[in-house]
Design a protein that fits this description.
heterodimer; A: 119 residues; mainly beta; seven-stranded mixed beta sheet; four-stranded antiparallel beta sheet; 0% helix; B: 112 residues; five-stranded antiparallel beta sheet; 57% strand; globular
Chain lengths: 119, 112
């Protein structure tokens, strides 16, 4: 099992360019998330998808769009990148409804992150 | 007001001592509470979770929850240098149990 994978690992964009961050999980999880992490800011929720076919805004959705392509994949799109979007982006997933081994069903498993710089 | 608040630290604790990390949250309807550990340059990983008022112990870690005061804490006993990391408090929102909000994290440093 690869767990949660993210592509790309690093990306440099110019202001105004667009790009899509890809996320996939092979754990048959229902819920998926996108967070950004800036120094001293912890993780801030951008969007989440509680289940296939649904998406909802988090704390900082402005400037982003998401697509839950299927149960495995959840992408994050920046339509017109701005320097304020320079950050590390983490994708996460959780099973939601299938607790096992004493672990909570809403335990989040994180991908390795994408480090994005917008010049 | 942020929905989940933590002191950013750094918190410096001598090896072998107890490290105490605190977190407050604003949503009275929150049901699930988590502590994640994040090493520098790595992804967060779950170390403790708690749903009910009181204490929950797992090895050297104890999570404490007080819903009336909207307060969650993490105690690390016999602190080791390997415990040096950022600790993130996370809380589910009443509006959606799938919506999980994190605090800004507390950076913990264990000094030998």
């Amino acid at each position: 099992n690869a767990g949660v994978t993210q592509t790309p690992k690093f990306q440099v964009l110019k202001t105004g360019q667009s790009m899509t961050l890809q996320c996939a999980q092979d754990m048959n999880h229902n819920s998926m998330y996108w967070y950004r992490q800036d120094p001293g800011m912890g993780l801030r929720l951008i969007y989440y998808s509680a289940s296939e076919g649904t998406t909802d805004k988090g704390e900082v959705p402005n400037g982003y769009n998401v697509s839950r392509l299927n149960k495995r994949e959840f992408s994050l799109r920046l339509e017109s990148a701005a320097p304020s979007q320079t950050s590390v982006y983490f994708c996460a997933s959780s099973s939601r409804g299938r607790a096992s081994g004493g672990r909570p069903d809403n335990e989040q498993f994180f991908g390795p992150g994408t480090r994005l710089t917008v010049l | 007001q942020k929905e989940v608040e933590q002191n950013s630290g750094p918190l410096s604790v001598p090896e072998g001592a107890i490290a105490s990390l605190n977190c407050t949250y604003s949503d009275r309807g929150s049901q699930s509470f988590f502590w994640y550990r994040q090493y520098s340059g790595k992804s967060p990983e779950l170390i403790m979770f708690i749903y009910s008022n009181g204490d929950k112990e797992d090895g050297r870690f104890t999570a404490q929850l007080n819903k009336a005061s909207q307060y969650v804490s993490l105690l690390i006993r016999d602190s080791q240098p390997s415990d040096s990391a950022t600790y993130l408090c996370a809380v589910t929102m009443y509006s959606s149990a799938s919506k999980i909000i994190f605090g800004s994290g507390t950076r913990l440093s264990i000094r030998p």
